[in-house]
C-alpha cells in the first residue's frame, strides 16, 4: 500500500474547496472549476504523478535495458512506453514521469535502490504544474524570458529556465486534441510559483482547474473528504 503523501500545494488548495480524490497516495483536487467551459488559461496541479530521476554515464544504457525509451538528444523528451514521458536534462540526466494510472517511475526508483555502476538516483520532490489554453502566450510574456508558445510541439524541446525568479523545467506536450505546458520546480518554491501564475491567469480570464479537468479519465478516482 502506498503511504499517504502531502503535495507542495496542499495547504493552498485545501482552502479553495473543490472535489478531491487521492492519487498515488496524495490528496489531489479533481475539480476546482464549476463552469462547463474550461478557463483560458487553465492552471492545474499534477504533483501527484509519480516521477523519478537518475543521472550518470551509465544512465542512458540502464534505462534502455529496462525498456524505457530514451530521447536521442539533450534537452528533449519522448513519450514513455507505458504512457507518461521521459525528459533528458542535459546529456546524462533523466526525468521519468508515469502516466496518471501507471507506476513505472516508482518501479524504476525501487530498482535503483541497488547500486548500479555509473547510475545515480536523483531525488525528485517537484511541484508539477500543467498550463493549457490559447492565452498562455500572454502568461509566458509576463513570467518567462523564453517564448515557449512559439516553440513547435513536434520539436519536443525541454527548456531549463527561470519563471518569476524560480528555476523551472518546462516542455510543451500534446494533450488530447490540445497542447499543454508542463512545469516542474523544487517543491519548496511551489506555493510561490502557483500563487504568482494563478494571479496572472485570473487577470487574463483564466482559473485553477482540478486534475480530472485536464485528465478526464481520472474522474473515475474515488472522492475523499479532507
What can you see in these coordinates?
The protein is α+β, with helices and mostly antiparallel strands. It folds into 2 domains: 139 residues, Probable tRNA modification gtpase trme, domain 1 (Gyrase A, domain 2), CATH 3.30.1360.120; 72 residues, Alpha-Beta Plaits, CATH 3.30.70.1400. Helices cover 20% and strands 33% of the residues. The protein contains 6 helices and 14 strands. The strands form 3 sheets. The chain has a 6-stranded mixed β-sheet with strand order 10-11-12-9-3-13. A 5-stranded antiparallel β-sheet has the order 5-6-7-4-8, covered by helices on one side. It has a 3-stranded antiparallel β-sheet with strand order 2-1-14. Strand 11 and strand 12 form a beta hairpin. The longest helix has 14 residues. The radius of gyration is 17 Å and the shape is globular. It starts with 9 loop residues before the first helix and ends with a strand.
Q: Helices, strands, pairings?
A:
Elements: H1 10-14, E1 19-23, E2 26-31, E3 42-45, E4 51-55, H2 59-65, E5 76-79, E6 85-89, E7 93-97, H3 104-111, E8 120-122, E9 126-132, H4 136-143, E10 158-163, E11 166-175, E12 178-186, H5 190-203, E13 207-209, H6 211-214, E14 223-224
Parallel strand pairs: 3-13
Antiparallel strand pairs: 1-2, 1-14, 3-9, 4-7, 4-8, 5-6, 6-7, 9-12, 10-11, 11-12
Runs in which pLDDT lies below 50 for 5 or more consecutive residues are none
| SSE string | HEEEEHEEEHEEHEEEHEHE
Total count of helical runs of at least 4 residues: 6
Measured distance between first and last alpha carbons? 20 Å
Structural class call reads alpha+beta
Instruction: Please state how the strands of the largest beta sheet are arranged side by side.
Output: 10-11-12-9-3-13
Q: Domains counted in the coordinates: how many?
A: 2
Q: What is the general shape?
A: globular
The CATH class of the largest domain is Alpha Beta
Q: Major sheet, described briefly? A: 6 strands, mixed
Estimated helix fraction: 10-25%
